[in-house]
Design goal:
Layout (H helix, E strand, L loop, with lengths): L10 E3 L17 E3 L8 H22 L1 H26 L8 H37 L5 H4 L6 H29 L13 H25 L5 H14 L20 H5 L4 H13 L7 H28 L1
Antiparallel strand pairs: 1-2
Membrane topology: Multi-pass membrane protein
Main location: membrane
GO cellular component, one term: plasma membrane
Length: 314
């Protein structure tokens, strides 16, 4: 009489031919271990996909770094070159007059503004323009959304990779903005590192979130409208060339209308924060700058993620 075979959780009994003539299957075929493949959790797979999407964008940036630097430097360099080098050299008054003292005061105001406007343009170029192309003629977005992660995480990867490019742009532009001046003109700079190390990343994420919103709101054929009706007003009313505190005299009936209207412009808070980080010039209070920038970030990112999902699903 054959003894019964004990079944365990690790073995699986299978019928096998009688190879010994005893009515009992061959010993080697009595049981085989069950092999199970460990599976990753959804969160782990999403983190891996997010990291891969960001690394992909940064790899592309590394391969085209020369083009990235050239694109980043053109506008800030021209601003600084014209206003802080050419104008003083030809005797063209800037900074409201006052000779070299007025020109140096204007340089102190302009250098942080140039860093702020660079962050804004980089956020729009790295996210909005890329998304308009990926949703348009390249259709690259169809490959990205096949990653093993939620759709919103694909959009978040674009925002974070664009923010990394914004930080790099700020680091590239600042030395040039600080030194390209005419003789006798100098910016009075004073670093406050805790503001620099917190405000620049926050500003970069806020502007790339704006880029996500713009890139999912405007079709590729309407990019010109985006620059004409959104980017240019943000630029000229964003405090790049002047401090927000200096707008108080622009009044109608005693009401400082311009100083009030520009408060809806996120760039004004970035530039005011940059002046607090890089100079001793008068600026908006930081307890206003930080909360409002965080509010803009949440608003832009929320609307951008909603628009992104709608465009992908449609």
């Amino acid at each position: 009489m054959t003894a019964p075979i004990e079944e365990t959780q690790d073995t699986q009994t299978q019928d096998a031919p009688d190879t010994q003539g005893t009515g009992t299957p061959a010993p080697s075929l009595l049981a085989r271990p069950i092999r199970t493949t460990p599976t990753r959790s959804t969160a782990a797979a999403s983190r891996t996909a997010l990291r891969a999407l960001i690394l992909r964008d940064l790899t592309v940036l590394r391969k085209n770094f020369g083009e990235f630097v050239a694109r980043t430097l053109v506008q800030p360099f021209l601003l600084v070159f014209v206003f802080l080098y050419v104008f003083p050299a030809i005797g063209q008054g800037i900074g409201g007059g006052g000779g070299s003292a007025g020109e140096s005061a204007f340089a102190t105001v302009l250098v942080p503004g140039v860093v702020g406007i660079t962050i804004m343009f980089q956020g729009i170029q790295a996210v909005a323009l890329q998304l308009s192309a990926e949703f348009g003629y390249t259709r690259e977005i169809e490959d990205r959304v096949q990653a093993p992660c939620p759709i919103w995480l694909v959009a978040l990867a674009k925002v974070l990779s664009g923010a990394a490019q914004g930080v790099i742009s700020a680091l590239i532009v600042f030395p040039i903005a600080a030194v390209v001046h005419a003789r006798g003109v100098h910016a009075d700079l004073s670093f406050h590192w805790w503001i620099v190390l917190t405000l620049i990343p926050l500003s970069c994420v806020a502007m790339t979130s704006l880029g996500l919103l713009l890139g999912t709101s405007f079709e590729a054929r309407n990019i010109g409208l985006m620059f004409g009706f959104v980017v240019l007003p943000l630029t000229f009313l964003g405090g790049t060339y002047y401090e927000w505190t200096r707008l108080a005299p622009v009044k109608v009936g005693g009401f400082p209308w311009l100083q009030t209207i520009v408060l809806i412009n996120p760039l004004i808070y970035i530039n005011e924060g940059m002046r607090a980080a890089l100079t001793e010039a008068p600026h908006m209070h930081l307890y206003i700058v930080y909360p409002v920038l965080i509010g803009f970030l949440v608003l832009f990112l929320g609307l951008g993620l909603r628009n992104f999902r709608r465009k992908v699903v449609s």
